[in-house]
């Protein structure tokens, strides 16, 4: 009887482990919702003006971070589970949970590294006045919640859109997304549009 009960408990525990979701990636520096609201209130509100001079090459990526590993490969290792890399630091196996849409991938080729604040959005928000060196630092920033490993076509759907034009498919991620977006804009002293601020406020109110 005891043996049967123990077997049942072990089976139940194994079932729970199997059903447990993968841990959500947590880039550093995501502020509390109250902090993000304070940061958002302090950001300069400015209309979106596209000067037509944006070029992806003005934000050089990816930097070499350590050994043969560049920024993309570093984020894949940081945000993945059981990631194995070869001598060139390319991921040969592992799994990645995309917090934007809840999908899990086992091939690094299905994963993009998303810039939380897209590079063109940064350009029109103040980065057009930066040096190329500063833009490179922004595009490779591992010190805050700017870089996320996500499903490639979700990243492509986002493009250079701000939260008033695009939100993650998972509404349960709105809170983290808005906190991260505001943190990046605050850290880099970038502006927001009125519509962007309204959308971020709404998303922060889901926290």
UniProtKB/TrEMBL annotation:
Membrane-spanning ranges: none
Source taxon at top rank: Eukaryota
InterPro entries: GmrSD_C
Domain GmrSD restriction endonucleases C-terminal: 106-201
Entry annotated with the keyword Manganese: no
Keywords of the record: Signal
Pfam families (alphabetical): GmrSD_C
Signal sequence segment: 1-19
Classification via PANTHER family: AMP-DEPENDENT SYNTHETASE_LIGASE DOMAIN-CONTAINING PROTEIN-RELATED, SECRETED PROTEIN
Protein name in UniProt: GmrSD restriction endonucleases C-terminal domain-containing protein
